[in-house]
Amino acid sequence: MKSAFVLLTLCLTLNVASQTDADVLKTIYKQSLTNGKSYDWLNHLSNQIGSRLSGSLGAEKAVSYTKAELENLGLDRVWLQPVMVPRWIRGTKEYGYIESALGKTNTVNICALGGSIATPALGIKANVVEVKNFEELALLGKDSIQGKIVFYNRPMQADLILTYEAYGGCVNQRYKGAVEAAKYGAAGVIVRSMNLRLDDLPHTGSMTYDDLPVNKRIPSAAISTNDAELLSTMLKLNTNTKFYFKQNCKQLKDVQSYNVIGEIKGSEFPNEYILVGGHLDSWDLGDGSHDDGAGVVQSMDVLRLLKTSGIKPKRSIRVVLFMNEENGLRGGKKYAQESKQKGENHIFALESDSGGFTPRGFSFDCTDASFNQVLNWQPLFKPYLIHYFEKGGSGADVGPLKTESNVLAGLRPDSQRYFDHHHASNDTFDAINKRELELGAATMTSLVYLFDKYGVNPISNLDNIKK
Amino acid sequence: MKSAFVLLTLCLTLNVASQTDADVLKTIYKQSLTNGKSYDWLNHLSNQIGSRLSGSLGAEKAVSYTKAELENLGLDRVWLQPVMVPRWIRGTKEYGYIESALGKTNTVNICALGGSIATPALGIKANVVEVKNFEELALLGKDSIQGKIVFYNRPMQADLILTYEAYGGCVNQRYKGAVEAAKYGAAGVIVRSMNLRLDDLPHTGSMTYDDLPVNKRIPSAAISTNDAELLSTMLKLNTNTKFYFKQNCKQLKDVQSYNVIGEIKGSEFPNEYILVGGHLDSWDLGDGSHDDGAGVVQSMDVLRLLKTSGIKPKRSIRVVLFMNEENGLRGGKKYAQESKQKGENHIFALESDSGGFTPRGFSFDCTDASFNQVLNWQPLFKPYLIHYFEKGGSGADVGPLKTESNVLAGLRPDSQRYFDHHHASNDTFDAINKRELELGAATMTSLVYLFDKYGVNPISNLDNIKK
C-alpha cells in the first residue's frame, strides 16, 4: 500500500511539473473548494476551544490542537517555539452607566481595553469631557480635564473604501487615549468602539501606558457605538452628564507559551524559506473566528493543499501560528529573532490576519522589482476574481522578518464587514462563510506556489509587465 | 428659503460640470456611504412590509410605499404601470418525512416550489428514485419511475468561482423537474435545494408545467441540502426507503398589480432613456432583502444620489421597480412592450438583482464597440475596488429591452453568500450589510452618470482602450 501511495504522489508530482501555472492554480482552487480542511479546523478552534487570549487555557489548548493537526499532515517537521507572553485577564464583567444631570441612569455596553488597569473597587463616577482627538484634548488642558472621564468619540470615516484605513485613522484613541488623558489628570478614559456600524457591542483591543508610572495610570474602556452616540447627545443637552464604570481586569505575570511551526523541506533550495502564518491568540469576547482563527486555518491548509495538489516544493515551506499578536507581538518578535540568529533566509512571508472574507488580493511590502515580478502573475488570478495587487503593509507578525530583498505580503479579503466583528463578542464561527474562507486558503496557496517555483527575482523586468 | 435651495442646487450643478469624472465618482460614493437612503428604505421594506409575493398584500403595500418614497424625492414624474400578475399561494406549511424500510420516520424541511400544485389532501407516500439529471431519468424509463417520487439530487458545483454559474448548472432540476418526471408517470418530485451550503433550509423558486394537461401535473417541492444528503444515504442503504409529503399550495386567478416608475427628465436629450431597476416582488419564505429588496432600494437611491451629488442629467433617467420577476416576469415584459409601443429609446438599462453584497463590477450585454467604451471607464472605478467588467447577461427584467445598439447591464456583487439565502427563509434584513448595500448603489449611480454624460458610443475606438 505504501509504495502504491508513493507512486501516486510521484505521478501527481510529475503531472504538476508538466502543467501550466494556470492549470496548477485551477487544481489548488478546486482542492480547496471541494476538499479543504480550513472550515473544519476553524469549527474546532472556535466552537470546541473558543477564545484564545495569550496565557489563557484556550490559547494552551489551541497550541496542542494545531500542533497535533499539523502532525497529522505528514509534514517533514512540526515543533513548538517557546515564547513568554503577557497574561492579562478581564475579571468579572464590566459595568457602566450614563447619569443624567437629573440623576437618571442608562446602563451602557462596556468592556475594558486589553492591558488596562482596573477601576477602584467601587468604580469611578465623574463628569465627562468629549473630544475627537488629542489636539482637542491639549486645547482643553488640565483645568478642563482634571478629575474627569475623557470620552474619545471620533467615528471611523465611513467614506473610506478600505475599512482598515478608517481603523488606522481612529485607533490611536484606543491605543494611546489613556496615556494622553493621564497627562492632564483625567480619572479615566472611555472610547467609542472601533466599529463602522451603529450597534450595541463594545469592541476591545490593546492599549498602552508607555512608560507612565504605575500610580499615574488610569483605567480605560470601550463602549458600543450606540452608547457613544447616546452619551454624546446627552452631553450636548447637558454638560453635567456623568459617567460611571467599574472593571477589575488585571495584568498578571508573563507565562510560558508557544508559536506552533510546521515545515515541508524544500527539494532544491532547502535553505530558502517561504512562510505562511496567522496568529493563534485572540481577544476574549468572541471566539476569534475572523481574528485570527481564519488566518490560522488558512495557513495550515496552504501546506496541506500543496500536498493534495501534488506540488513538491523546491524551497522550504513553513507555516507559523504566532502567539500573542493581539497584546504584545511576542510570538512574531521571537520568531524573527531566532530566525536571524540561525541565519535563516526568508525570501517570502505571507500573513493572513484580515478576516476570513472573500479574498480580493494582496498587499506587498517589497522592492519595485519584486512587485513587478508579482504583477506578472496577476493575470493568473483573474479567474478567481483576485484583482487587488498593491504595495503597502504586510502583517504585524511577519513584519519583523523584513530585509532589503525579501517579499512580505498580507492577504487582503473584502473588508466591509470586518469591523462589525473585530474584537467584539460577535467575532464567532457563524460569521464565517465556508467558501470565502476556502477561497482565501486557495489564493494564499497559489501565491506560495508561484514564489516557490520562481523564487524572488531581484531583477526588474519592466518589459514583461502587463499593466 | 426656497430660492436659497435653488441657488445651492445650481452651485452644486455648476460645480459638478467643471469637475473631473474621478471627482464626481468620489462625490457619489461619499454621498452613498455617508448620506445614503438605501438601508433605511430596505429596513422598511423588509421589516415593516416583509415578503412580497406577486398578488399578495405585501406586494401591494410595497407598491404604495415605494411610490410614496419616490414622490418624496421630487422627481419630475412618478407613476404606476398596471400589470396583471399570477397569484400563487403556499397555503398551510408543507410537511414531509423519510420513512426507512423498517418504518421509522425522519421529518424533513420541505417547501413547495412556486407554481406547484398541491398534493392530495392526505399527501403522497411512495418509493423514491434518485437521479442527478434528466438523462439518468430517461435511462431509468417508465418501468422504474411510474408511481414513484423522483428525487433530483445534483448538487451545485462547488469549484465554480461564480456561484451563479453553479446555479445555472442545477436549476433545470427545479424548473423542469416535474414536467420531465411526469413523462414517466412519477407521482411527485423532490428537489435538492439550490444551495452550496449544507444546512437545514429548504429553498423555493419557480417551476413550470409547460403545456402539460392539468390531470398530468404532479406536485414538486424542495428539501434542504442536509435532508437531501440524508435521503440519498438512506436510499443507498436501502432502496425501499419511502418519502411522504403534503402541501396545499394553489394557483389562483391573475390579479391587478403594478410596476412603480420614477423619472428625472433629461435636460438635453429627454427622449433618450437610461433605466435602473430591480424587482419589487419576492418569494414568501423570507422578507426578500437580498432578492431583490436590495436592488429596489439601490435603484431608487441612484436617482436620489444623482440629485444629492449635484448632477443634472442630460438624458431621462428612470427607475423601474418591476413586479413579478420571480414567477412570471410580467412586469418586465409589460414595461418593454409599452415602451416599444411608445417608441421610447432606452440607450442603457441596468439591473441589480444579484443580492446586496459588496459590488465587484458589471456584466454587459452589448456590442463590442459599447463594451470597449465601458472598458475606457474601468480605471475610474479602481479606487472603489470595482474590477469586474465582462460581457455576459444583464438581468431578467431589463432583458426584454434589448436592441441591436443599446447597452444592458447587471450589477455583479460578490456572489459567495448569495445562495445561502436565495429563496429561503433566511433571506432577511440581518443578512444585509449597510456599507455593502451602499457601495452597490454608488457603483450603479457612477455608471449611470457616465452613460448619461457620454451616451452610448456606437463607434469602436480600440486605440484608446486600456487593456
UniProtKB/TrEMBL annotation, chains A, B:
MF annotations from Gene Ontology: carboxypeptidase activity; metal ion binding; metallodipeptidase activity
Subcellular location: Endoplasmic reticulum; Golgi apparatus; Lysosome; Secreted
A Gene Ontology cellular-component term: extracellular region
Domain of life, per lineage: Bacteria
Record-annotated Peptidase M28 domain positions: 259-444
Subunit structure: Homodimer. The monomeric form is inactive while the homodimer is active.
Descriptive protein name: Carboxypeptidase Q
Organism: Algibacter mikhailovii
Taxonomic path: Bacteria, Pseudomonadati, Bacteroidota, Flavobacteriia, Flavobacteriales
